[in-house]
Beta sliding clamp
Amino acid sequence: MKLTIERAALLRALGHVQSAVERRNTIPILSNVLLSAERDRLTFSATDLDMEIIDEAMAQVDQPGQITAPAHTLYEIVRKLPEGADVSLSFTGEDPRLAVQAGRSRFNLPVLPAGDFPVMSAEGFSGRMGVDVTDLIRLIDKTRFAISAEETRYYLNGLYLHTIVVDGSPRLRAVATDGSRLALADMPAPEGAAGAPGVIVPRKTVGEARRLLEDAGEQVELQVSPQKIRFEFDGAALTSKVIDGNFPDYARVIPKDNNRIVMVDAKLFAQAVDRVATISAEKSRSVRMAIEAGKVVLTVRNMEAGQAVEELEIDYDGEPFELSFNARYLLDITDQISGEQAELRFGGPNDPALVLDPADADVQYILMPLRV
């Protein structure tokens, strides 16, 4: 294998694929990136056996071939090369190492056979759907903060992507929950979505897909099967196993009768919560909300750090009531409000609160109160 490639193109492609490689691997080949040179392009593949990322870049290929090299080491070398440099990659049977050369810099990296590199099958998918990149970014950004990090409930360790019919219209919906909060976002279902199975996309895959979307064009091709999901971008593809489990029936926990409606300035509310939470106990991060006509009083009491109280004007004219919430969870939700106002709907003292965004009718957030 022998080729020459621009440093910027090489860095971009390596940056896309190398994040799939775990820093510590018990299987040596999984620390490597597969380099495949043919015709006028170089293709890169990296995997952790659960997820595979493939990208390609234009190159001047003098001799086609395949080899694997240490992903993170190669990425760091290319990152530190001068901008605008042309990088030469060559591997011959005479020297069992990959030669990397740019200007007066030369590196020789250990390699492993391309035939040992595991390849994830791209078969078994049912149809394709073309999704607008900005719409998919919105679905991910509005919901992924609520993905659970608790490994015992593995079926919550991902984003539940599925189609659903709302008021007669098919929708593509993303839902995430950790048991204490839930985030839901909808968009009109794209062509090809009908009949696609609902899947739980792992947290790592969601993060990598979101990162790749930054460099994608206007559309991404989405393919789904009961076992895998595949995102196809401009010349790049991410294929991942999905979580084998049943996502909870989240519709049952969405409040239907929360008739205490509070309108609040989302930015001012978030700033006030953040200020009083400065002295909250790290474990519970509890903030007490005392709501009455025209105002909410936020209170935090900490035996060691003292007390904080802040009053904020709100649009509410009902009976007074009090609840406590985790401050971090409140802030995570208010961060997602795209308009100036947030609509908070409350039921009883132990009922989940429903948070809506008047500027985006296709999102809903649910937050469980703390029992204090």
Summary: The CA atoms of residues 153 and 178 lie 9 Å apart. Helices lie at 7-18, 71-80, 133-143, 203-213, 266-276, 327-334. The mean pLDDT is 92. The chain has three domains: 1-114, 125-250, 258-365.
